[in-house]
Amino acid sequence: MKAQPTATTRPLRGRARITSFAAFVVLAALIPTTASATGSQEVEAELPYVCTLPSGQLPATVRVLAEFPERAGAGEAFTPSDVTITVELPAQAVADLTAHDAAEVRAATRLTVDVAQNSATATATWRGGSEPVALPGSGPLTLVTQGDVPSVAGRSDGDLTFSAGALAIDLALGAADPAGADPGSLTVDCALAEDAPEQGLLATVPVSAGGPGASGSPSPSGSASASDPAGDGQSDTPGSQAEERQSERSPKVVENTPGTAADRAVPPCLFDEQHPPTDASLAAYITGYTNVRKQKAASYLPPSCMLIEQGDPVAGPPDPEAIIFDTVSWADFGYQGRRQTPPFRSTFLSFDFAPVTATMVLEQTAPIRIDSRLKFYFLKGLTTMDTYVRAPLVLHVTSLEVNGTPLEVGSECRTDGSLTSVDPDPVNHPGDHLVLYGRGEQITGQDVTGYKLLSGGTLTGEAAIPAFTGCGSDGEDLDRLLTASVSGPGNYIKQVQGQTCALGAPVFPGPNTDGQCTEDLQPIVIPVAER
Q1: Which of 33, 137, 442, 451 could form a disulfide with 457 if both were Cys (CB 3.0 to 4.6 A apart)?
Q2: Which DSSP symbol is given to 417?
Q3: pTM of the prediction?
Q4: Exposed/middle/buried for 245, CB within 10 Å: 0-12, 13-18, 19+?
Q5: Tens of pLDDT along 421-430?
């Protein structure tokens, strides 16, 4: 990273010209916090391992491919994406497997990844699976696995490093003779070789306390030392207190099981006098990312409360293959009695040296409409659920700072209308609004996959950002600058809704249930944003 320039006092005319120029450079902040404002880094590491097989310890090669953000904010969880693990086992390993009368193998990998920041450490497990692979007649065996990995958040300023550790490979063997005995399964334990480059280092992600998703005030760079990583002057804390402090400093690892999060550092999500609850009331959190096409960056929407009134299902159009029910529900964002997301402050670097801090909210201009269509295919035992969310939302920018210098945007700086999408049914749904779509499926007797209003899931869409209006003060008009830098079509959106809390029939945690509602009827589940 480049060194930050030292701030100096300049004449007012010079400050105004610099501030105006900065507006061109820094406007990626105009959609909620970017988790990787300057893009992402692709990692490809080839590492030597030693694996224990029935014939003994054998050398193996492990290749790890993944995508990380270039930087992140303290406290902001991000998830390495496109993770692929390729394991190449030597020919002797193939002989060991064929000795079990196996002809094919399906692999599941469990890679231990050490996550470290400022001498504090945590451990994540990257899991992956493969399709069945035929054992080769000669030469090595190559296994390629892919899967989801945990989210990680750095606690403070400092590089967050990811290093590969132990690897376990669970092998499910397929018989050469279908009529023969089941060859069973085998677990192969592998250790990183002593000569592995940089002790298995995969990636380094710089973390800044003033960056996106940061909680609390930024801490001065370099305030902690190796002997006193907490920066409090107490380098020798005895016993359990030392362990507790270590835990507080360690990077946070969040297993991405559906709809979980590390804590409840989110705004309350409660019905109130403006939204009195009914038996049909639902509460849920939603979070996610939005691409800003012009800036080639992805922006983060922090968990926001949605207060939903579920409608009654009515019979849909006739269909010879299915029974159809349509439901119209209505929703509002809920933040301190207002229909908006919570305001949040984010910082990123433009041109890798100009720190920019922005505060903004998404404001709702009319009720959010949710159209759900359920189709039950009775002969197939299949139920499908198609949901369209239509949300009229304007983007309101409340403040900008460039290298600590405020850029006056005024109190009415916002998009000139709602973010818009191409509606699949414009005749029945005219007007400007954002459209998000989710689809769920359920086979009789199995769990729902995909999106369902009650249980949540992923919603996607594409939006055009309108021109800006009302931006600037003291005779400085910033509308055209913001419009040129941010506004335009083709901005992909991916949002994740968590499990709802149904106020009419709340499910509380119990010995045999995970629970959906807190004691004061807020959603338990806080979803984790996905890319």
Answers
A1: 451
A2: S
A3: 0.54
A4: middle
A5: 999 999 999 9
